[in-house]
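Message: A physicist's question: would you kindly supply an amino acid chain plus fold tokens?
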Amino acid sequence: MRRLTLLLRLLLLCAALPGCALTDPQTRPGTWQPTGANDANLRAMIADPHDLVHGQAGSGTEAAVAARAVARYRADNVKDLPDSALAPVSPLPGGSGGSGASAAPASSTDSE
């Protein structure tokens, strides 16, 4: 008798499941649906559509300055941030180097 009751409940549940599509918030009528407007706006704003496939180098950037900054970071020899009157700059506990900013705090779960 118990198995029959369980089987009937299971069948009733299976029969009711297709009705869930009517109440799904993602497919319900009147809800926002993606239409591709973001892609259309992006394509309207760019000068050369080929730039979406292969980027373009930024103008006015100095690669040598950026390369030196990366080299200092890799060598753990970053420059200190200038102190301002707005907020004091102080090193974080456990930070590396002489900088007020450190990359990311070391985590004990890195070895997993």
Notes: Residues 98-112 have pLDDT under 50 and may be disordered.
